[in-house]
Amino acid sequence: MITQHEARSVAILGSTGSIGTNTLDVISRHPERFNVFAISGYRNISLLASQARQHRPRFIVVPDADSERRLVSELDGLAVEVLVGEQALVEIAEHPEVDVVMAAIVGSAGLRSSIAAAGAGKRLLLANKESLVVAGHLLMDAARAAGAVLLPIDSEHNAIFQCLPATLPHQGVQSVLLTASGGPLRSLSLSELEAVTPAQAIAHPNWSMGQKISVDSASLMNKGLELIEACWLFDLKPSDIEVVIHPQSVIHSMVRYRDGSVLAQMGAPDMRTPIAYGLAWPERIDSGSAHLAFDQSLQLTFDKPDRVRFPCLRLAEEAMAQGGTMPAVLNATNEVSVQSFLNACIGFTDIAHINERIMERMGSEAVESVEQLMEIDQQARALAVQAIAEQG
Ligand code: NAD
Ligand code: MG
Fold first, then answer.
1. CATH architecture for residues 4-152
2. Cβ(109) – ligand 1 distance below 6 Å
3. Ligand 1 center to 137 CA (angstroms)
4. For 155-164, what is each residue's pLDDT tens digit?
5. CATH code for 323-392?
């Protein structure tokens, strides 16, 4: 039976990134279902202009007046309104004509617009895991109060969402199994890890992603951030979550039930699958992803994570256990230390050292507001920059 749909109007915040371009790819396969209402970018203005020519959004958001000038000249008279700055991202996220917000900005820069979309009761497709890490309580409260539909795009959380019972409370669930590929440095010794270059760290074996999350995957910080993300999304404690190394990235996560059943969601490592799931939920649509083949040998192996060689996972567990503003501190210092590693200013193993030092220096406070969290974020960044300068 063919059903008629009214096209959903989608705002893609962070459209020039890895998740953003994959979202536009899925949308372009279903022009009858989705309209691109707005897109946003940061540095890659030429890509933003070419996306505008192809998808004809009503609005484009850029960070500053200089980017606006360059974009307008590249658009060459195309009928689209260009908006500037973080407040414009918030206005788009809340815009009455927007049905769906894809939150695909990287880092805590995506926080305000994610909370705005939740508070406006949108369908929020949350790729920006950092906003849950920094302000999980505020984001979940805002979504609940406004009746927003929050669908996780992170592949693991999307898998868990698919494997959990549809109704709350999650009856009969024993634990959640959060899978991790282990990244490209999984089998290196501690001394080999000290000498790792940025190029080695971002060469992920299974997924093609932005640079920051690729380094986080190599350090297992990504799994740590995802553990915090899962606690907020599914109302879990860290002790409810088992991290499992699964190098093939075929199983995207699992749910263990009291009766002995384990439900897993599998698929090719292609973010278009969770993106298509979020866009069309509760329906299923073609995503463009290759289908898994079972007529040839498919190896699935599992292992335990090593918190000694990869201390960032332990730091995230500790941050969540301490609670309050500590996850925000960890997220901020990690953004600085990862960037500093990518700039070849510190070594790979220094990422965890700097993060741990700043967590100890800052301590934890009770969460009060987004403003307070953004201030803590700035303080932690400043301390991390200082610690890196002293070390160099
Ligand atoms: P990316 O670096 O490829 O893209 C980031 C996007 O954010 C770009 O559009 C960029 O222009 C924009 N941006 C960067 N800094 C900004 C700022 N200060 N203000 C406004 N916009 C800014 O990153 P990505 O890999 O697409 O990841 C995006 C988010 O999705 C991250 O939170 C990441 O953890 C999450 N995620 C990504 C993947 C993946 O496969 N790439 C998987 C799971 C979760
Ligand atoms: Mg993930």
1. 3-Layer(aba) Sandwich (3.40)
2. yes
3. 22
4. 999 999 999 9
5. 1.10.1740.10
